[in-house]
Amino acid sequence: MDPLTEKQIRSSFVNCTKGDAVRLRLPLDFAELPWDDLDFLGWVDPGAPLRAHLVLPRVQGPLGVSLRIPSVKRTSAMKSSMCQVCLTGHASSGVSLLAAPLAGARGREGNTVGIYLCGDLACPLYVRGKRQPKLPSGRYEESLSLDERLARMSDNLDAFVAKVTGV
To answer: How far apart are CA 103 and CA 27, in angstroms?
Structure first.
């Protein structure tokens, strides 16, 4: 992913108000982000820990999606869970259900779509093996190449964003 400026990020959001985009806080490590290892930028807002943001590169410019994190963690007997974007298995606390308001009038009416994502939104780093999930049994091994796993991750995220944007 090519490095983005603060202005590019703030103007990219399709499912929040311009005021919300102005108020969001960038990742604390924004100046040191490993752009070469990112296929999209994802972070939990340091000023509003129940908000998260995704910014995806597009030919026409970056596309941003705001997400809500539930205020109560789900209680479950599951010992592990899996991200729906990168398919990385985590201890159950490592995956969160995030809800995105739909873009446009449908979102202003309160309609949302949800997805289970890595709690730290670092899917590209997990796929590349630059970050390891905390699982008692270790990381699941796959026979797919890195390029195939990256393509799958991109397809899964694109499908979610299509639901948000209605395109």
So the answer is: 23
